[in-house]
């Protein structure tokens, strides 16, 4: 018979990924006792199956592509990547899927870790089933924060489970390179994994149901990436859906809506995410299992005074950095309420409001070329009813990009709110632009007037000079 222990804390956090870790860090810093519950690895999806391993796979691919465009260097890097070395380094970056470092960090901030499956079993109560079946009941005096993230969504295709398809976790953790890989999807995961595995030696076929890649970004971003993938040898097919997938004698056979038959060694479905809330006891507190959790700007679930949902699980912005930002806001709000400090609902940029989720969410797609955006796209700006002006500039107009050897492969767009004379959206595609997007994020979040941006002088010759070109285009058009 399993013995049950009940322990009280100020805060209980469900999920020890980067988001849960940040909630715990902020509540512990405020002097609140905090328990963290994790059923897998401390560090979560980002550390072991998403951000870190995917970028470890992509960095050699992008570095080689950049080098091949530089005169005097391109002939020295014509051979294949050392796939074994790339995979070994990816393993190193994930600590070989061991979480001793994450556990030590939690201990260093004074949070208590409970290994096992945590479920809400009533208001302010989480029951943890440990690895050996032991039960521990954790009660929260002030808050329970759900930071359980998302899982991969798979389409409803008959017999798909028998095919044993890859999801994003398989694509970032595979220990060998498949000779042929089908990638289904057109979003960030599909574009990045197609880039990585094509560079590592797979023959990639990318099947995109929509008109192009990266549908949430400006159309030119997806067009430039699709062009580069095609040049690298990938087969990119847009407007393509699947009617069936089978595995015959170890070979994946995919049939498209037009009757084309595609064979491969593996097939990756990168077709979206669903909330990891199906078995965390939401029904015990009046919420729908498997649902996204709606929150206010302090990340608290409406109708409760104790339940918070932070990170991907609330569907505001499925990005690690944005989830960590939300965690900082949630931690501050939990601490303030625990101390009886009033939260000013009228202060949108205060310490207790995740306002950036609405106006300045940056994202980088680590493909060749890189694509990054923050704020509104042109379509979103037009739909918002604002009076806006959009200006486009080729990245090749700045010397910093030209020095990469292929400065013409890139484009920038800036969108200005004409009534307020502030930037509300920026998209950049080209070499090295991932390190440039924070300046755009600052401009948008800070509502820096266009007149003041003229005095922010970009260094020469850097790609950041694109800001000057955009301002000039705005002035002259």
From TrEMBL:
Recorded family membership: Belongs to the class-I pyridine nucleotide-disulfide oxidoreductase family.
GO biological process: 2-oxoglutarate metabolic process
Keyword NAD annotated: yes
Protein name: Pyridine nucleotide-disulfide oxidoreductase
Necessary cofactors: FAD
GO molecular function, one term: dihydrolipoyl dehydrogenase (NADH) activity
Binding note for cofactor: Binds 1 FAD per subunit.
FAD/NAD(P)-binding domain location: 9-321
Keyword Flavoprotein carried by entry: yes
Top-level division of the source organism's lineage: Bacteria
InterPro entries listed in its UniProt record: Class-I_Pyr_Nuc-Dis_Oxidored (IPR050151), FAD/NAD-bd_sf (IPR036188), FAD/NAD-binding_dom (IPR023753), FAD/NAD-linked_Rdtase_dimer_sf (IPR016156), Pyr_nuc-diS_OxRdtase (IPR001100), Pyr_nucl-diS_OxRdtase_dimer (IPR004099)
Pfam families membership: Pyr_redox_2, Pyr_redox_dim
UniProt keywords, alphabetically: FAD, Flavoprotein, NAD, Nucleotide-binding
Annotated positions binding FAD: 55, 118, 312
Residue sites binding NAD(+) per the record: 185-192, 272
Annotated disulfide bonds: 46-51
Pyridine nucleotide-disulphide oxidoreductase dimerisation domain sequence ranges: 361-467
